[in-house]
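I hope you will forgive my troubling you with a question about protein structure. The matter concerns a single protein, recorded as an amino acid sequence and a row of backbone structure tokens. Please examine both parts with care and let me know of anything in them that strikes you as inconsistent. Thank you for your consideration; the sequence and its tokens are set out here:
***
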Amino acid sequence: MIGRPKFVLASGSPRRLTLINQAGIEPDALKPADVDETPRRGEIPRAYANRLARAKAEAALANVEFDEELRGAFILAADTVVAVGRRILPKAELLDEAGQCLRLLSGRNHRVFTSICLVTPKQAFRQRLVETRVRFKRLSKEDIEAYLASGEWRGKAGGYAAQGIAGTFIVKIVGSYTNVVGLPLYETVMLLAGEGYPIRFGWLSAGV
């Protein structure tokens, strides 16, 4: 597209792509960053989210520097963390992990943190952390077993996806819903606009 700077989304998440598309932005490239996501000893959830988002942004920047077409692009990275107190819940890959997460979240409040990290064309790093409070209903054994059978939990922070079946578990959300899905749109758009990215460029054809 002529008339706007290049935009790279440093993520392979279909949810983040859907959300950034919702804002009227079509990335020129997806550059998922492979970083070690092991929490450090004693690391609190917000610090963990910030560290990983920055690491993903740095990895994507190193990647595009060798690509003439993408050099100088805006690069957006993000990391979403689900936490109960200071405890960081895993991005569930195993059935047992997901089951443990759901039993822990059942009938309780938890917090979802997403850190977004933007690299500007001048290679300046801009970062924001967004926090949302979520309350789950008390989950029955049948709720948990049926949700695990759905497979929807796989690869999701905290073992659930708010935009799917697990949306029926949510009693209350205080803060950004899109943050819980994986990319807080308001803060992302404000960050991009503040750095001179033409946010409304893609809106002209959005209804076509």
